[in-house]
Amino acid sequence: MATVAVYSLKGGVGKTTFAVNLAWAAARNSSRRTLLWDLDPQAASTWMLSADHSGRDEAQAIFSREVDVEQLIRPSTVEGIDLIAADTSLRGLDRLFFQIGKKKRLARLIEKLSRNYDRIILDCPPGLTETSEQVLRAADVVVVPVIPSPLSQRALGEVARYLVQNGGSHAPILPVYSMVDRRRSLHRAAMEENPDWPIVPMASAVEMMTSKRLPIGEFAVSSPAARQFAYLWQAIEKRLAKQ
Ligand SMILES: Nc1ncnc2c1ncn2[C@@H]1O[C@H](COP(=O)(O)OP(=O)(O)O)[C@@H](O)[C@H]1O
Ligand SMILES: [Mg+2]
């Protein structure tokens, strides 16, 4: 079993879009038993893939051990992907992690799931918080969507510096250019700095995911953006195989 976190210091960079499509690629292209765990109280991937909108506000209770993690797993609307939904109770998650003082609570919960899943994808809230520290300790690889702009590159630098300062071991970081528009000179210039990073283009097919509430592979599998997600997933599988 391996855990892939989709994380960034910044909001609105494509984390949820990546998480949903990488979960799809894990399930469909690699036939992995796949779980998508939504850790963001904004609950965007939950909104996209949940079959059940009863909103019980239990998501945080997993971490205080009031509910068993397995009890909150549901099938998603997409075959082959199970979901742990987010809800607004996760707004208190940083405080809870701080109070319990167990730095590996998320990692331990994930270990419990390793019998039933091959790939766990974490859709993370933005920021450098207690939650992100838990995520960085639990993940086997951390995928970071980066919009090609100086500000986004800087945010990535901040995370890298933070990890170095904190020492200890952490998962490898895999930066990926997100929402790339090659007509923009700023994008082209930023991308020239890291020509080897994978790329996800800005595309209306990606935008349509929010109206169809489906991964792009379900309705536009041969679009350029869907192909880039498939390549990205292959690169992640290769990286995991090396570890
Ligand atoms: N490659 C893309 N092309 C077009 N729109 C995108 C792309 N990636 C993300 N978006 C849109 O940008 C918005 C923010 O993306 P999202 O994945 O929710 O970011 P985050 O989870 O980091 O906040 C969403 O409306 C999403 O549909
Ligand atoms: Mg999101």
CATH architecture: 3-Layer(aba) Sandwich
Q: Any ligands, ions or cofactors bound here, and which?
A: adenosine-5'-diphosphate, magnesium ion
Helix/strand/pairing category: alpha/beta
Strand order of the largest sheet: 3-4-2-5-1-6-7-8
CATH superfamily: P-loop containing nucleotide triphosphate hydrolases
Number of spatially distinct domains = 1
Q: What does the overall shape look like?
A: globular
* CATH topology annotation: Rossmann fold
Task: Sketch the topology as an H/E string, one letter per element.
Answer: EHEHEEHHEHEHEHEHHH
CATH class: Alpha Beta
Helical content stands at 40-55%
Give the rounded overall mean pLDDT.
94
- Amino- and carboxy-terminal Cα gap: 12 Å
Oligomer: single chain
**Largest sheet at a glance?**
8 strands, mixed
Can you tell me about this structure?
- With 243 residues, the protein is of the alpha/beta class.
- It has one domain (2-237): P-loop containing nucleotide triphosphate hydrolases (Rossmann fold), CATH 3.40.50.300.
- 40% of the residues lie in helices and 16% in strands.
- It has helices at 15-28, 44-49, 93-100, 105-112, 130-138, 150-166, 185-193, 204-207, 209-212, 224-242, and strands at residues 2-6, 34-38, 73-75, 81-84, 119-123, 141-146, 173-180, 199-201.
- The chain has an 8-stranded mixed beta sheet with strand order 3-4-2-5-1-6-7-8, with helices on both faces.
- A hairpin with a 5-residue loop joins strand 3 and strand 4.
- Helix 4 packs across helix 5.
- It is globular.
- The protein binds adenosine-5'-diphosphate and magnesium ion.
- Residues 11-17, 44, 178-179, 200, 202-203, 206-207, 210, 225 line the site of adenosine-5'-diphosphate.
